[in-house]
Hints:
The chain is built from 10 helices and 15 strands. With 367 residues, the protein is an alpha/beta fold. β7 (170-174), α6 (182-193) and β8 (197-201) form a beta-alpha-beta unit.
Amino acid sequence: xxxxxxxxxxxxxxxxxxxxxxxxxxxxxxxxxxxxxxxxxxxxxxxxxxxxxxxxxxxxxxxxxxxxxxxxxxxxxxxxxxxxxxxxxxxxxxxxxxxxxxxxxxxxxxxxxxxxxxxxxxxxxxxxxxxxxxxxxxxxxxxxxxxxxxxxxxxxxxxxxxxxxxxxxxxxxxxxxxxxxxxxxxxxxxxxxxxxxxxxxxxxxxxxxxxxxxxxxxxxxxxxxxxxxxxxxxxxxxxxxxxxxxxxxxxxxxxxxxxxxxxxxxxxxxxxxxxxxxxxxxxxxxxxxxxxxxxxxxxxxxxxxxxxxxxxxxxxxxxxxxxxxxxxxxxxxxxxxxxxxxxxxxxxxxxxxxxxxxxxxxxxxxx
Length: 367
């Protein structure tokens, strides 16, 4: 198996990172605290975790390592805000969402830099994700005004049956680290549109984009408590969301293992679950976004020519991949593969790319 580390730990913040962080600090989008009840707060015990730039290993900032207590308060805050947010007219909620969309688009360059800083996605693709993610808010801003009911034919002449749709309550939104903004907006957008309130648990590896997006939601006029963000101890936060009777729905994108655990836990309090896990390992896949893409394939079963020729072709293609700072195009080839592991009997080919344990992994290519 061919293994290659892609990080340079020089202990210094690069000029590109300094410039990007400076750009972020100006509009107040580089947040490093959780959000509970409209207030930016630290972990109650003072614990923090580092957020690293995966291209260099340098520390961007520290964020609170939250757990059960903070999550409980976030749920209570969302439950209280639900009483007023759910009573607003669909048109009023739509206006807030539309303003949030406008702010996301207005800050797409800054948000794109933030995605690149903490996740490593190339800047052009990161900015593209901001537009893609903002479009969910735009869509649900309009759909908020079209939550229609139904008229059902009655079996008796003196009866009239109709159905109205109402918000379920507090929604727990658990998102992965590969699509930092889009996974937030596609979960939070429809929840807010129909009158629900939200507790977001972004990946503890990449929480900064979620915090920046939520800061813009506050500026858009979404009231305190309607959106909350906690990060840190994933198991404590997840268990608290599952155990709470105030949380009525869980929406999740991530690994199959965590998805199964959430579905099992949600059954104990009869929660609805929107489970977005698609493949056993989020880090498996092909070249797109270093393999960190739900649409990326896991295996390529070869047909003639033989697997040895396929291995050579794949090695050549992989050697063209680039590593280093994704803020610029000044990057060296990431791979100079000497050998690949493949099974001639199964005609499957595997290329492994590993990373230090304290960094976001580049991924596992299975070709």
